[in-house]
Amino acid sequence: MNTPLPCLMVGLLGLLAPFGVGAQALPAAPVIPVALVDQVREMALSGAAGTPVANGLPVRFHVDVGALDPRLKLAPCERIEPFLPVGATVWGRSRVGLRCAQGPTRWTVYLPISVQAWTAGWVTTAALAAGTELTANHLVAAEVDLAAGSGTAILQRDAALGHSLQRPLAAGAALRTTDLRSRQWFAAGDTVRVL
């Protein structure tokens, strides 16, 4: 049976209507003024640029500002001030606070943000299995996001050469310190001579 897509969608919505699905419009997220979004973006960029990992590196930052929860019912506000929560890291997925500084009702909400920090690093040339001992042929220079994933991105190829992978990596995956097994220079019980 070939049912045209629009008819199928109408049929599904009709079946779901008694359960309250499809009959109601989804609530819209509170609208954030463009000037405030720009202010949040500048605050995030400033915070990310001050991160110790970024110091001294030619880093290109990109900030995505998310949306507020559509279920929020915020009172009108004459002046909204963005702020960084105490202890918040402006790196990767984070948040910026927004507080009503002047209005009939004071409120505070948190706006999700995502900060990417791109710089020169190393990625895999092909899919690699766990246990692979890295050689120069396994790595190629590419731009990597320092803020993505766990572990520090490997920025010097020599720091990875000769190490074995702790887990499998897909082709084009950025190489991170958490992907590498620590070198075992000697085993438990070996006699060690210190010079």
Would you kindly provide a written description of the structure presented here, covering whatever features stand out?
Strands 1, 2, 3, 4 and 5 form a five-stranded antiparallel beta sheet that branches. The longest helix is centred in the first third of the chain and has 16 residues, at 34-49. Residues 1-26 have low confidence and may be disordered. It contains two helices and five strands, in the order H-H-E-E-E-E-E. With 195 residues, the protein is of the alpha+beta class.
Question: What spatial form do the alpha-carbon principal axes imply?
Answer: elongated
Percentage of residues in helical conformation: 10-25%
Mean pLDDT: 81
End-to-end CA span: 82 Å
Report the biggest beta sheet as strand number plus sense, adding barrel if it closes: 5 strands, antiparallel
Number of helices: 2
Coarse structural class: alpha+beta
Strand content: 15-25%
Q: Which regions are unreliable across 5 or more consecutive residues at pLDDT < 50?
A: 1-26
- Calculate Rg over CA atoms: 25 Å
How many beta strands in the DSSP annotation?
Answer: 5
The ordered H/E elements are: HHEEEEE
Which key features would you list for this structure?
195 residues; alpha+beta; 5-stranded antiparallel β-sheet; 5 strands; elongated; disordered N terminus
Question: What is shown here, in short?
Answer:
By secondary structure, the protein is an alpha+beta fold. The chain has two helices and five strands; from the N terminus they run ααβββββ.
What's the layout of helices and strands?
Blueprint: H1 5-16, H2 34-49, E1 60-65, E2 79-83, E3 92-102, E4 108-124, E5 139-145
Antiparallel strand pairs: 1-4, 2-3, 3-4, 4-5
